[in-house]
Structure formats: structure tokens, C-alpha cells
Amino acid sequence: MKIILLFCSMVFEKVLKNIRPFIIAGPCSAESEEQLISTAKELLQRVNIHAFRAGIWKPRTRPNSFEGVGEIGLNWLKQVKEVFHIPVITEVANSKHVELALKYNMDWFWIGARTTVNPFSVQEIADSLKGLDIPIFIKNPINPDLDLWIGAIERIYNAGIKKIVAIHRGFSSSNKHDYRNDPMWSIPIELKRLYPDLEMICDPSHIAGKPNLLLSIAQKALDLEMNGIMIEVHYNPQQALSDAKQQITPPELQSLVQQLIIRKLIIDDELEQQLQAKRKRIDELDSILLEILSERMKIIHEIGWMKKDKDMTVLQLHRWGEVLKDRLSEAEKLHLNPELVKKIYEFIHSESIQIQIQILNELETLKNS
Ligand code: PEP
Ligand code: MN
């Protein structure tokens, strides 16, 4: 189902669309009144943030970890809102959280990665939001499943919420990488391609898991046309009761924001024309590439039938080894990334084997019928 996202609140729209980078900052968790007020005060003195965040109920992997201060923390967040005149945002994971967050006048809510994975929980939240006009930020699910993310957005949208922002916070994966959560940039890019009007921000804290990667992740997110960041900031990260390793201080956020390069979203006419010419050439080359691929697949079919006639196995390992070796050395001469060429050939090869196995099976089916 195609979602047409209409943002009706002018204030919200103005903040998100016209300000880059849009910044939500604050601690992972609310821990004490003093921690929230001091962090907010220092943050606002140093950085132009647009909302203050803090988790009240913390979804922790293991029991007996700090699971959030609960309702009392909402009162502290309300004070931050009243004293500093800044929107406050917290995480909701069920209808009780929604009820309490509304009671304490939280401005915006976010749905966490562990909740987005569960359609029952998302639907429960959606039902409790019916009839309200409140911005909802939806983090990607923990696992790299774009449909689950879209499903959560649809459930909230169908409840009548029109101000929806996606948050990219990375994914659990078995790939080896330096991140706490693999960014898998192609997933948020695909979401943006499917829903170009959907606003999206990045949570570099939960992707990085440590301070030194935050800048490069935030920069990449802005370069991919995300509107801004949600980042964890604590006045004393070492003492933090959750996510201590990834939180930074207000001065550190100030320095990070100063280093961000804000590139233009709209390109000028001259550049537009130059890009169009290059893109036309890419379109032509892609069409040649696809014709060649189709020609190659036809030959794969023919070979499949020849192997079938002579009762040969589908896979001749030595041939596959030679093909890969030869293509990789050619790739090197052409200055192509060998990893990329290897991946492409692995795809093509596995498709070719699939086609030839199908040829064998089709014949078996005919024989048996
Ligand atoms: C958080 O923002 O503190 C949090 C728990 O995030 P996530 O749902 O992305 O793990
Ligand atoms: Mn956190």
C-alpha cells in the first residue's frame, strides 16, 4: 500500500524540512532530575538542538540491568520542556506508556527497534494513538527486514497519525564490522526510494556503539539526504546507567556538529544539465549491460541442454574456478573493485546453476508424467 505522508502541523514541518541538520539529543535514559536538567542546560548553551530525548522505560537485553526510572522520569522531562521551552521526546513500547507519556505532555514519541519488530505491540500503540495529532518517530526493526519497518509505519499511519519520521539505527547482523549495529545503508535508501516524502533521520549512537564513529556516520546520513540525527548525550557518560560506551558530552556534540558539512540538496541548473548528460550515458550503458546479460543467460540455457543430453553434472568446479580467476584478473586491469566483481559473478553463477538444474528437473517431470 502506498502511503502518502502529509504533514499537517506547520511547526513540525518547518522544523524538519527546513532545518538541516535537525537534531534530537539527550541521554539514553533519564536517571535523575539533576542529570536531565544539567544535560539539557549544557546542551542548549552549546548546540542548537530541536528536541531533547530521554528513555523512561528501557528495553534491555538481559534482566537485572537498569530498566529505566519509569513514570517519575516523565515529570523530569516535563520540567525540561517547561524550563527550556524545547520539545521533549521519549520511547513508548505499549499503550500504558502512551497513556502516561500523554499525561505528562510529552511532545513526540519514538518506537524503539525492539518494538518495531513486533506487529502486536505496534498495533497496540497505533490503537492508543487514534484521534491524536502527535509526531511519531519509528526506528527500524533490529533485524534487516524492510517490510517490518514499512509495516510499522503503515500501522501508525492507518491510526490517523500523519506526522511520521523514520529513524535509521542500524541492524543486527552476522557480518564482521566495527559498528554495534550494521548500518546496511541500502535499507534506508530503499525506504526513501519507495516513500520519497517520508522524513528520515539517523541515530548514529546506536549504529556506532562508540564515540569515534559518530561523525562519519552522521555525515554519511546527511549526504544521503536524511534530515538530521538523534544522538545520545550525557553530562557524564562514564557514569551513565545505560549505553555508557556510546554517549558523548555536550561539548563533544558541539564539536561534532561544527565539523558536519551541510551539502546542498538542490542542484543548480548548470550542474543539473551536466548530470543529465552523464545519467543518459549511464542509462545507455545499463541497457547494453542488460542485453549482454540476457545473451549470456541464453547461452547458459543452451549449455544446460547440452549437458543434459550427454548426462553431465551441472557444476564443473574447475571451470567455475577458472572463470572467477580470469574475471578477477581482468577486473584488476580495468581498475574495478575485485570484491564487487566477485559478488556479481557469484550471483550470475548461482543463477546459471539454478537454470540448469531446472532444465534437468523439467525433463524428469516430463518423463515421470
Ligand atoms: C534508545 O534510543 O535508547 C534505544 C533503546 O534505541 P534502539 O531502540 O534503537 O535500540
Ligand atoms: Mn540507548
Q: Overview of this structure, please?
A:
- The protein has 369 residues and is an alpha/beta fold.
- The chain folds into two domains: 2-259, Aldolase class I (TIM Barrel, Alpha-Beta Barrel); 269-368, Up-down Bundle (Chorismate Mutase Domain, subunit A).
- It contains 14 helices and eight strands.
- The chain has helices at residues 10-18, 33-46, 71-84, 95-103, 113-116, 119-129, 146-158, 186-194, 204-208, 214-223, 250-259, 269-309, 317-333, 338-368, and strands spanning 22-26, 51-53, 88-91, 108-111, 136-139, 164-168, 199-202, 228-232.
- Strands 1-2-3-4-5-6-7-8 form an eight-stranded parallel β-barrel, surrounded by six helices.
- Strand 1 (22-26), helix 2 (33-46) and strand 2 form a beta-alpha-beta unit.
- The longest helix has 41 residues, at 269-309.
- The protein is elongated, with a radius of gyration of 26 Å.
- The structure holds phosphoenolpyruvate and manganese (II) ion.
- Residues 28, 232, 242-243 line the site of manganese (II) ion.
